[in-house]
Amino acid sequence: MIDFILADQNTPFAVALGLMIAIALAEGVGTLMGLGLSSLIDSLLPEVDLPDVDVPDVDAPDFDADISGGALPADLEAVGAGADSSVAGPGLFGRVLGWLCFGRVPALIIFVLFLTGFGLAGYIVQSLVQSTTGWLLPGFVASGVAFAGALPFTRTTALGLSKIMPRDESDAVSRATFVGRPALIVQGNARKGLPAQARLRDPTGQSHYLQVEPDIDDEVLEQGTEIIVVRQLGATYTAIRNTNETLSGAG
Questions:
Q1: Across residues 64-82, what is the average pLDDT?
Q2: Distance between CA 21 and CA 39 in Å, rounded?
Q3: Whole-number Å distance between alpha carbons of 65 and 21
Q4: 113: buried, middle or exposed (CB in 10 Å: 19+, 13-18, 0-12)?
Q5: Distance of CA 105 to the CA centre of its chain
Q6: Kind of pairing, strands 182-187 and 207-214?
Q7: Which of 76, 95, 107, 153 fits a disulfide with 117 by CB distance 3.0 to 4.6 angstroms?
Q8: Contact by Cβ (8 Å): 212, 220
């Protein structure tokens, strides 16, 4: 049995199952330490279409106040409470993610499901082939078959989980509504083209982790700086310093 599990032709499946265990352990440790590992990964993924999820209207803060000692950047008005107009729709990649239930189930759970399906499907295929012919398929051939089997397994299982997992109201909050809200740089210094990690709390109090960079060229937003998110650029956001006390409390 051990020889079968560790056979060269089965290396992709052993690696997949080992990675699945490592991710599960990392998420467990991160949860105990208060690190939003799953939220961080979700924030890096593009927005996906969820036609069966009712997205509530979330009002952005009133920007009549003077935020930065002067007028807001002109492009913030054009953005309003939505995403940047140059951001395209979800596209094929976003549709694939939506089909796999990203946005309904945390990303790490979907990765774990896929790795589990891939690893188990590969071993099942190789076991059937070996019992019939006495030999194993080449790794790349078996991997192709396992990949094809892992996709419907992942979708079906994730759909089932999405119906029984407890859901917060904030699960239905679109990341486009983060524009205009305060946040806090929690890791790294943000520079143009070099985003840092920021934490944003939605109206329900749940934390979201975003990748942000300065909206103003040559500006550096240091770790610990309170910011205002002003624009969504795909999976990242741009921000300005928050100098308005009425919009503080991002952390």
A1: 43
A2: 19
A3: 50
A4: buried
A5: 10
A6: unpaired
A7: 153
A8: no
What single-letter amino acid sits at 52?
D
Give the chain as a DSSP string: -HHHHT-GGGHHHHHHHHHHHHHHHHHHHHHHHT--HHHHHHHHSPP---TTS-----PPPP--S-SSSSPPPHHHHHHTTS--TT----HHHHHHHHHTTBTTB-HHHHHHHHHHHHHHHHHHHHHHHHHHHSS---HHHHHHHHHHHHHHHHHHHHHHHHHHS---GGGG--GGGGTT-EEEEEES-BBTTB-EEEEEE-TTS-EEEEEEEESSTT--B-TT-EEEEEEEETTEEEEEE---GGG----
Could you read off the pLDDT of 115-126 as tens digits, one per residue?
999 999 999 999
Could you identify the residue written with the tokens 């143009």? Answer: 192
SS3 137: coil
Per-domain residue ranges of the chain = 2-35+106-164, 57-89+172-247
Instruction: List the structure tokens of 172.
Output: 């239905």
Number of Cα atoms under 13 Å in the Cβ half of residue 154? 29
Structure tokens, 64: 């009549």
CATH topology of domain 57-89+172-247: OB fold (Dihydrolipoamide Acetyltransferase, E2P) (2.40.50)
> Tens digits of per-residue pLDDT, 194-240?
888 888 888 777 788 888 999 998 899 998 999 999 988 877 899 99
